[in-house]
């Protein structure tokens, strides 16, 4: 028996046993990985935000057509240029039984400002001022065009639950990156589900919260069992055999197979997550030379990767901002030209090349390990020898934070749906105080680019913002600040009759609380 068949059989047995044990309104979900922590502020990632939408609730959330809809905030109004007043819904209960008040929002805001990953998003915000139990003001240091965009990141936490000390004397509110903390293991949110069972890397069980505030939701799923299945073929096979009900992502190689299968639905959507590689200028002297960075960009065949590895299920990129964003510049096009790349290497004094290390995850982005292998092979054409290592995301993110390799893969979706967000986290000059450049493993720094980003964050005239952000993208392109590959499209597979198309969105945060299973 082959290794593949053994793993599939084991997964099928476990899923079948689980199916027999649970009621009909249980939905079995298989992602390529499970959340690395229950702490909503430990890591700024898609997995964290997917979890947050299940066990917490934001003040405001995105609709499928990228408009805002109220959640825990029932209304809001602009009081002055730097103050927006929010009114909370009354009668909202945390999983612990505590009631939500404006003090919980204030406490959560202060914690977000302490998070290494999230404080950059909130750099423009100065305070939450509590007006009364159900009212608070969100204040900025200057007029800011993205207040509601940022409010989608505020998932109020149960301040009483997270305040105090554990039995071993540790602060319950502390944020421990890739570590063990009270918040990483315990959760009390306002969301539609509570976490009733969790074994990292094996499964997470979510039970419907009996006192969930949103009685208008037609969601009727009582239990969700999330099982991580890293291998694409095994995950797809589990859906097609009926062992699971919902999977993500569906790999490009299996799109047609899922679309043609009886009893399952394929749901696809254009994506705005850019997949990139960063070049660490502090680890490799050659990366400080713009000609070497440009040579690497010229050596990488973006279109070939999308065509052959992604099977066309992606959009070739040459910048971070996708079409439709204010900063997108259609004049910036991919520059694949191996001979030009060789000439630039020679001009920079590196005709004979050099050796580097490269790291990438193997279960975070669609075909991430295959993409990394292809890029490593392409760089060999300009005499750059690559020592590539891929690993599961649970091991990858600590390595990424350590800047443990010379080139590292990072994908980014601007959850504020704004171009400035890409630069703030991926290419801004790293600054521990502000949180800018938190995911800039290349240590790229350009003060003019940062100035444009900062100016755009206080500019409310959309035409002027667009001009600033487009100029910013042009600087990054000319300096080859990073290697853009493609925008990753989204694909989910679902058992027919689950109405899954109603709960997915371009941000890839399915709203399972609203899922109606027929």
What key attributes describe this structure?
single chain, 518 residues, alpha+beta, Dipeptide-binding Protein, domain 3, eleven-stranded mixed sheet, 15 helices, disordered N terminus
What does this 3D model show about the protein?
InterPro entries: Peptide/Ni-bd, SBP_5, SBP_5_dom. Keywords: Signal, Transport. Pfam families: SBP_bac_5. It is found in: Periplasm. This protein is an alpha+beta fold and 518 residues long. The chain has a domain of 219 residues: Dipeptide-binding Protein, domain 3, CATH 3.10.105.10. Helices cover 29% and strands 22% of the residues. It is built from 15 helices and 17 strands. Strands 1, 8, 9, 10, 11, 12, 13, 14, 15, 16 and 17 form an eleven-stranded mixed beta sheet that branches. Helix 8 runs antiparallel to helix 10 and helix 14 runs antiparallel to helix 15. The longest helix is centred in the N-terminal third of the chain and has 19 residues. The two termini are 38 Å apart. The N terminus is likely disordered.
Biggest sheet, open or closed, and with what strands and sense?
A: 11 strands, mixed
Please count the helical segments.
15
Mean residue pLDDT: 94
CATH superfamily of the domain at 271-489: Dipeptide-binding Protein, Domain 3
CATH topology of the domain at 271-489: Dipeptide-binding Protein, domain 3
Look at the structure and give the CATH class of the domain at 271-489: Alpha Beta
Which bin fits the share of residues in helices? 25-40%
* CA-atom Rg in angstroms: 23 Å
How far apart are the first and last residues' alpha carbons, in Å?
Answer: 38 Å
Q: Beta fraction of the residues? A: 15-25%
Shape: globular
* Helix/sheet category: alpha+beta
Q: Regions with pLDDT < 50 over 5+ consecutive residues? A: 1-22
Total strands = 17
Quickly give the CATH architecture of the domain at 271-489: Roll
């Amino acid at each position: 028996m082959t290794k593949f068949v053994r793993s599939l059989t084991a997964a099928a047995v476990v899923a079948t046993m689980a199916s027999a044990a649970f009621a009909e309104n249980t939905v079995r979900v298989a992602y390529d990985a499970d959340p690395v922590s229950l702490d909503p502020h430990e890591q700024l990632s898609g997995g964290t935000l997917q979890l947050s939408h299940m066990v917490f609730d934001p003040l405001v959330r995105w609709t499928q057509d990228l408009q805002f809809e109220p959640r825990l905030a029932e209304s809001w109004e602009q009081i002055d240029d730097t103050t927006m007043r929010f009114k909370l819904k009354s009668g909202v209960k945390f999983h612990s039984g505590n009631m939500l008040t404006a003090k919980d929002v204030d406490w959560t805001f202060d914690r977000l400002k302490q998070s290494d990953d999230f404080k950059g998003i909130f750099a423009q915000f100065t305070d939450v001022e509590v007006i009364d139990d159900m009212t608070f003001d969100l204040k900025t240091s200057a007029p800011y065009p993205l207040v509601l965009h940022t409010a989608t990141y505020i998932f109020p936490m149960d301040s009483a639950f997270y305040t105090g000390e554990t039995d071993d004397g540790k602060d319950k509110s502390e944020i421990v990156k890739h570590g063990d903390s009270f918040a990483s293991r315990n959760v009390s949110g306002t969301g539609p589900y509570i976490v009733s069972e969790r074994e990292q890397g094996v499964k997470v069980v979510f039970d419907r919260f009996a006192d969930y505030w949103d009685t208008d939701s037609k969601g009727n799923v009582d239990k969700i069992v999330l099982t991580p299945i890293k291998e694409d073929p095994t995950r797809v096979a589990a859906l097609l055999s009926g062992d699971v009900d919902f999977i993500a992502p569906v790999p490009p190689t299996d799109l047609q197979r899922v679309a043609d299968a009886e009893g399952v639905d394929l749901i696809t959507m254009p994506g705005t997550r850019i997949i990139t590689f960063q070049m660490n200028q502090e680890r490799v002297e050659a990366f400080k030379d713009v000609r070497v960075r440009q040579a690497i960009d010229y050596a990488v065949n973006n279109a070939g990767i999308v065509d052959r590895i992604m099977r066309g299920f992606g959009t070739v990129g040459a910048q971070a901002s996708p079409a439709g964003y204010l900063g997108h510049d259609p004049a910036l096009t991919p520059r694949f030209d191996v001979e030009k790349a060789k000439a630039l290497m020679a001009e920079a004094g590196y005709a004979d090349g050099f050796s580097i290390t490269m790291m990438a995850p193997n279960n975070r982005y669609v075909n991430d390990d295959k993409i990394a292998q292809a890029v490593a092979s392409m760089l060999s054409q300009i005499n750059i020898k690559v020592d590539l290592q891929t690993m599961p995301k649970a091991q990858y993110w600590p390595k990424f934070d350590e800047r443990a390799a010379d080139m590292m893969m990072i994908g980014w979706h601007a959850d504020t749906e704004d171009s400035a967000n890409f630069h703030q986290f991926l290419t801004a000059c790293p600054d521990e105080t502000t949180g800018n450049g938190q995911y800039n493993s290349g240590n790229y720094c350009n003060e003019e680019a940062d100035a444009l980003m900062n100016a755009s964050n206080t500019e409310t005239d959309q035409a002027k913002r667009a001009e600033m952000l487009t100029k910013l993208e042009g600087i990054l392109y000319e300096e080859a600040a990073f290697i853009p590959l493609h925008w990753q499209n989204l694909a989910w597979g679902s058992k027919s009759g689950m109405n899954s198309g109603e709960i997915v969105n371009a941000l890839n945060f399915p709203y399972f609380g609203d899922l109606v299973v027929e």
